[in-house]
Amino acid sequence: MSMRLTGSSKPSSFEGPMVVGAGLEIIDQINPSWSRSLGIQLSKRGLGLHNVQLTDLLETSPKTPESISNSPAIIVISEHDPDRIVGKLMDALSHHHAAALVLVDSNRTHLRSFMHAEGILCEPLTTSASDAAMILHTLAQRQPALQRLNTDLRLSELTINGVQSEVDKLHEELQSAASIQREYLPEGIPDIHGVDLGIIYRPASYVSGDIYDITQLDENRSAFFLADAVGHGVPAALMTMVITQGLRKIDGSGKDSKIVEPAEALRRLNNTMTEHTGGNARFATAMYAVYDKSKNEVTIAGAGHPPALIVRASTGETDLVDSQGPLLGIFSDVEFNQTTITLEPGDVLVFYSDGFEVAFPNNNDDEHERRRPTLTYLSRLTKAGNDAENLDQSVKVLEDNLDLQMGSLHQPDDITALFIAPKVKRSIATNELVSDISSSSK
Length: 442
Description:
Blueprint: E1 18-22, H1 24-30, H2 34-44, E2 48-52, H3 54-59, E3 73-77, H4 83-96, E4 100-104, H5 109-117, E5 121-124, H6 129-183, E6 195-202, E7 210-216, E8 221-229, H7 233-246, E9 250-251, E10 258-259, H8 262-275, E11 284-292, E12 297-303, E13 308-311, E14 318-321, E15 338-342, E16 348-352, H9 376-384, H10 391-406, E17 415-422, H11 428-439
Parallel strand pairs: 1-2, 1-3, 3-4, 4-5
Antiparallel strand pairs: 6-17, 7-8, 8-11, 9-10, 11-12, 12-15, 13-14, 13-16, 16-17
């Protein structure tokens, strides 16, 4: 290991590993020929001694290859050297990760304590040349390994910084993606004539695989759509963009416009999705309905989605409107069925995504079991709506129960629900049925 150092006055003729010495004239004043004896002892161990000024060590730049980091050093500090110089020296040694033996007057105990705290080997001026040579030989032996570790550490820091930069960039991109996705959702709760609405929309991460749409089609009719792209994260979220753009609700414009029936709308959407798969099958479930307030009728078509729920205000019974259609995005040119149902005043229609199936796991379940569908949430949701006086309050209670259930746990799936009811004043008993909608939403 050859010594490399800036600021040296005379190059050494020794061909081999070197020890840098600074301030040795101080100890020679106490013990004449001490430095000469040190040089002899180091030579016996295959090391050379190169004397420099203390200022040379302080001026050595860690950015240059000629650095004390490659050579052990012996530094003698005079009783007259101010603490400021000693502190600067310690900073230089620490920055270079240099191996050094520092000899200090025994009276300056505070400096010795400071150096020991900084990991610098510190001994008194009475240390013999033989002992110093043995210590320096040991430091010289371990310095290459220390420098390799230091190099690996710097490379690791560079790698970590690069990874953190990419993580920050991904974080920003996901936030932008979430913002873009929200632009495709209705802003707040839309004002639909003749209909009370309640909405719960909770992505499991930045972006969601669930998407919904609520649109006033004409004076009497309004459309309600909920889709769940299979999967999570960005791939599912990108697919929701295709879904929303591919759903055609109205043909034509002006007087010649015609509302597309739900079954036909899903058929066209499915063909759009299958045409753009690119050989990679991506599929989704969906539920689409058109409500006509003049007739109090809702026409529903489904594509592999969990069944819609209708809570009947007159009887308290819950009807299931099953989704018999195929999944979206798998086979082209398939047909979808639709069903027309009369909604009486006080009835509530609910669309929901399958995230509700795992939204209320059993308390004693482990992490694996918590991701499996349960029925325990049914009773929770029923109790949550007992005191609700209107749809807004019922949905708020449901959201509060979701918060209490999840706590600090990560939400396992996207959660979305649409509550749709003819706009009439309902009794407290009917409102309790609204909570039953929630509790039956899986």
